[in-house]
């Protein structure tokens, strides 16, 4: 470590820090200011104090969006459950297992827009899903999957899960391969069978990965947009059934030009995200202390 | 190509006989194949649908997957109606531009954070840490206003490049990598009278090449699939990236499932080819962030 009071370190930092100041730090401050204004982007912002927040508190769609975003967090436990199981399965030494691992990773890189649009085609009234279900005798006639308000959110969540499982599986797989072999031997000596062995050795060994994934997938769930956007064709679903906080923010800001109102939603989102992150980090610290 | 080497602890031990082992393996193959079908089916279906002519139905009972009379007509129709070549060019420019510059700026910024002591270092680091938690969508409103009123680059490619030239995650990953470089190596360079910049470029960067690859790959995938901000900025079709163009196509081809399918295939194909060629690097890169 060199101790020099020169400008060298600042020169190294300058390019990145300028970008971060302009595109991260300034916007964070500005969004707070805009949230106290009436602003349509075209005419200058007018200071209106807490009015945006007051309107928001009485806005039924805002509460709907907030509850949808919280419901969306259910993808996290499902993702953790499915990807742990899948990681244990692909950790077996089977011929050709690498091909399966690669295959399961493809949704991760293909992008939620293209995949969301593909899903929308498949779930269309004239899509393959109806075709399959009718020929299997499950349905008698085509069902309008995407026109059913009760299904908008579950279908989007299914898409999020489908997109994410392969990524989290790889993280768990890397974790599994770091677990000492001796622990499994000890478990066998203690009389554990195959699945008990995983319950007593694999799952505790994967705790750092589980915590990490709980953090990143719940933050991603709070910010979901692309899945809703593609599945509902940018409309948010019938009766706002797919409107989440971020989708509502987007609609207020960029469809209705209510930049002030949208900024207030952004501040609410930030507060929720901070509460979440702090809880998660506490949880993470406790997890590592116990190790 | 191996993605990750399996340790042998999953090998069946003890006195189990071969048939049992064999049946067990068969069971796992069935499970794996089921998951594989669920994973790959949407891609396969979109792929075949994009080659269906008007004589091959999208919807039928029982469903018909493979076109009887395959045609390129859907692709030609999409190319005729939309500047797909421009979409590709724009996506490539943005993705590679951001990838190179973001990796460069991150490795510049991370070097003093890892290897130098200076006034404000910890403050800067915690400031970066704090911005990492902030949802990107939150910055979109002021950034939009900046783009329109200050930078005047609304509807231009710069608008989707500049905001991504510094990534907090990239800086963290590079800082972590630099911390692993022994100080002796740097001191040797300093003895020889090399400037900090030379030490960074000639000594440190070559050592952390795997981390550079990790950052580059994360940036690549993120940028290729980036949609939210580009969809706010890029308005004219000639200026759209593939993802934004694909949504425009979905709007323009509302009832044309075959055309939309062709668009999806064109968007996904390049990254799948990239992935197939560099599987190991992709997986290590994208999951490498976890340990970092």
Question: Care to describe what's here?
Answer:
The complex is a heterodimer of chains A (291) and B (292). Chain A is mainly α. Chain A has a domain at 53-110 and 150-290: Orthogonal Bundle (MetI-like fold), CATH 1.10.3720. Helix content of chain A is 73%, strand content 2%. Chain A contains 14 helices and three strands. Chain A has helices at residues 8-34, 51-57, 60-72, 75-90, 97-110, 112-123, 128-135, 149-176, 181-189, 194-205, 207-222, 226-231, 245-255, 259-290; strands spanning 2-3, 37-38, 46-47. A two-stranded antiparallel sheet of chain A has the order 2-3. In chain A, strand 2 and strand 3 form a beta hairpin. In chain A, helix 1 crosses helix 14 (259-290) and helix 9 (181-189) runs antiparallel to helix 10 (194-205). The longest helix of chain A is centred in the C-terminal third of the chain and has 32 residues, at 259-290. The relative contact order of chain A is 0.14. Chain B is an all-alpha fold and 292 residues long. Chain B folds into two domains: 8-76, no CATH class; 82-252, MetI-like fold (Orthogonal Bundle), CATH 1.10.3720.10. Chain B contains 14 helices and one strand; from the N terminus they run H-H-H-E-H-H-H-H-H-H-H-H-H-H-H. The longest helix of chain B has 32 residues, at 18-49. The two termini of chain B are 24 Å apart. Chains A and B meet through strand 1, helix 1, helix 4, helix 5 and helix 6 of A and helix 1, helix 3, strand 1, helix 4 and helix 5 of B. Strand 1 (2-3) of chain A pairs parallel with strand 1 (116-117) of chain B.
